C-alpha cells in the first residue's frame, strides 16, 4: 500500500470490495438475520437482496480505509523514519473510523431494505421522510459503527501485515502460508472484538421507531438484559467467517495487485 498514492489505494480498496462483496454477501445476510432474530434462509432472492447497497457500502468504505491507511504509512516512510509497529494499527484504525461515517448510513438502508424488500431508493426515501437524516434517522447507530470499524479495520489492515511479517521473519514461512495464517489471526481478532459493537448497531438500525432499542447505551443494556454478554455475540460465527475471508482477500490483493495498478495508472513495466 505504501507504494501507491491515495487514489491508487482507493482503487485497490474498491477492487477488493467488489470481489469480496459478491462472494460473501450470503454470510452478511445470515449475520444480520441472526442478530435480529429473523429466520434462516438459503433463498438467493433474499440472500442477495440489498446487494447494490452492500456493494456501494463496501466499495465506499474500503476506498476510504485503504486510502487513509496507505497514505499515513507512506507519509511516515517518506520522512525517512522506520515505521513503528503501533503505527500500522493506528493508521488502520483511523481509516476505519473515517470510513464508518460513510458506511453506517448505507448499512442502515441495507438493513431496512432486507426487512422490507423494497428498492434501495425507495427505502432511503422512506427512512429520510419518516425519521430524517440525523441521529434518529439515517445516522442512527453511527457511534457503535465508528467503534466497530476502528477495531475491525485495525485487524484487517494493521494486525494482519504485522503477523505476516513476523511469521515470515521468525519462522521463515512462505508468503502463502504466512498470508493465510495472518489473515486468520487478523480476521478472528477483528471480527470477535468488534462484534458487540456491530450487534448494537444492527439492532438500533433495524428498529428506527425505537420500539425495542433506543440509544447506544440503552440498546446495550437491553441486549445484556435479554441474554447476558452472549447476546452481544449473536451472529459472531457468520461475521467472523465473513471478516476472515475478507481479510484474506484484502491481504492477497494488497500483496499482488499494486504492480498492476501502477502499470495501469503510471505505465510502469509497459
TrEMBL record:
The alphabetized UniProt keywords are: Membrane, Mitochondrion, Mitochondrion inner membrane, Transmembrane, Transmembrane helix
Q: What is its main location?
A: mitochondrion
Q: Where is the signal peptide?
A: none
Compartments where located: Mitochondrion inner membrane
Q: Which GO terms describe its molecular function?
A: transmembrane transporter activity
Provide the Gene Ontology terms for cellular component: mitochondrial inner membrane
A Pfam family reported for this protein in Swiss-Prot or TrEMBL = Mito_carr
| The protein's name in its UniProt record | Uncharacterized protein
Phylogenetic classification of the source organism: Eukaryota, Haptista, Haptophyta, Prymnesiophyceae, Prymnesiales
